[in-house]
Amino acid sequence: MYIKQEYFLWKLSYHLVANHQFHILYMNKEKSEIWLEKEDKGKWHVVRLIHEVFNWKNQLKRDIDYVQAQIKQNSQLFRGGKMDLHYVYVSEFPPVDEWESLDIATNRNIQKVNIFYLDDKEKESDGGRLYETLQVERPVFPDHLDEVEYESQSLYLKQQLHTLRKKKQKENEQIFSQGKLFFTIILLVVNFIIFGLMEWQGDSTSVLTLIEYGAKFNPAIIEGEWWRIVSSMFLHIGAVHLLMNMLALFYLGTAVERIYGSIRFIFIYFLAGVFGGLASFMMNPQVAAGASGAIFGLFGALLYFGLKNRRLFFQTMGYNLLIIIGINIAFGIVVPQVDNSAHLGGLVGGFIASMITALPRIPGKSSRLAGVLIYIALVSLMAAIGIRNDEGGDYAAAQLQISQELIQQEEYDRAIEVTTTAVTNPDEYEAELLFNRSYAYSRVDELAFAKADLERVVELQPGMAEAHYNLALIHQTEEELNEARTHAAEAARLQPDNENFQDLSDELNNIE
């Protein structure tokens, strides 16, 4: 009896949804077809139930092939992990030929395919295999219902499933509407205002201006200016840096603030920014600034959301987000000017901060406590390592940056003062610091000091052509022509395409 098969299908579907946390992917009440899904230990079970009559095995095979093609075409609905696919056919009679021998292909996403053909005769035995495979108990079916009761019960079950589906859809929609854009806009405005002030009163690409406005400057942090970890989050080095970060903040901030709510969003943003700043303090001795650490923290927040909502994550942003994160990290590794330590630190910090805040309406008291303990332990460790690095002279790099800018601004006395302090503990930057100091000495007519510095530079780095060239100029000024020729020739040999080096060498060789 047709209506009895209908009732069986909708009763079984409702049992899986209401009692075993299966979710409805697709539902067609007129065609009597429904798709369900459930995650179990990292694997997804997708169940397709349909009331259909197949007289021959080939008809069944064509239907399965059609469904496999639909899955491939709508692959975004089936992302997020490995999948077992279960076909459940409800019918009064089975195909007349041997359908059990059907060979169904799998792929990298579909690990296993099961076919259950539940005709009236086989419902008991094959139904048992279905329940065992899905690890659910058998639903209770009434023994005696008349046709009218079967029909009314089927209509009721369809309506209940429709209601459950709408409820789940509403819950998913609410996940992305926990907050409105508030702090994202405020952060954008504040960053633009501060950048405008920097450009109005100085130059945002100037190291000295950045330090004055609160950039991450390790020597100052060591002296107690820990507030720079936060203030550096609002400074940007040039318009391109600002625009790139603000574009990322707008898109990521919109997503995170809507998922987590405004209060959780700003909490995650600042905790991630602090974490990224301390990672930079620990790993990067250069002067640094930018919102990148906090912005990568928003990536971390979305990854945490993906951990808690895998299916929804991969159906919406999943693979695209992972690709963007990978590209940004790779870019940071390839381009040395990028503070990759702040990026990775912000990513980790954002993930941990999301553990602390937790997602709205999802309990997680133990994970929150764990997040707090992990965060405190890691920021303490990074601060301690950063302080210890200072004792090893790791911050000569920052002084090198400052001296270069002072020379560009023709503040030679200050450049000499900065480099003289730095060379007392130069770490790996002794040659570069001495080269800068020698140039500053030469500009204030202290040629003896400049020559001594350059002689030490060529001892440390014999391949630095610029040092040989400058040393040749000083020897030429002091009429020490043999020494001048030697260094000029070495500079020309090291950089044969440099016309200035070649011209000086030729000029000295032509002097009698």
Explained architecture:
The protein folds into three domains: 174 residues, no CATH class; 209 residues, Up-down Bundle (Rhomboid-like fold); 100 residues, Serine Threonine Protein Phosphatase 5, Tetratricopeptide repeat (Alpha Horseshoe). 65% of the residues lie in helices and 8% in strands. Strands 1-2-3-4-5 form a five-stranded mixed sheet. The longest helix is centred in the first third of the chain and has 29 residues. It is elongated and about 120 Å long. The termini are far apart.
Give the tags.
single chain, 512 residues, Rhomboid-like fold, Serine Threonine Protein Phosphatase 5, Tetratricopeptide repeat, 5-stranded mixed sheet, 22 helices, 5 strands, protease, TPR repeat, hydrolase, transmembrane helix
